[in-house]
């Protein structure tokens, strides 16, 4: 994962939406002033899913950090920010946004394999 944005202000989170193209995967880390109870965290996750956020893994919490892995389809960051503000379960003291780097497409591997094969064939002659 590659860090693409961070801030101490939750209202700046929707501005980072443009860093993601449709289908990109990312992870949002919310740094909180206290740990959220598990039942509230479950309700938060359900609310995000109901609003159209595609979560690639269940939301998890370690100490005062909430990890939200998502795939961009709608405007997930704006929805997440609005839901956090609406629930008011905890104060966000900062956030970090990471983007999953694009992998090598299958045709890139195919070209590399053919090139390597051709190189080995010509060297053996």
What do these coordinates show?
This protein is of the alpha+beta class. The chain has helices spanning 38-50, 76-87, 106-124, and strands at 2-7, 25-32, 54-55, 60-62, 65-71, 92-99. The chain has a single domain, classed as Alpha-Beta Plaits. Strands 1, 2, 3, 4, 5 and 6 form a six-stranded antiparallel β-sheet that branches. Strand 4 (60-62) and strand 5 (65-71) form a beta hairpin. The longest helix is centred in the last third of the chain and has 19 residues, at 106-124. The model has no long low-confidence stretch (mean pLDDT 88).
Describe, in short, the structure shown.
With 125 residues, the protein is an alpha+beta fold. It has helices at residues 38-50, 76-87, 106-124; strands at residues 2-7, 25-32, 54-55, 60-62, 65-71, 92-99. The model has no long low-confidence stretch (mean pLDDT 88).
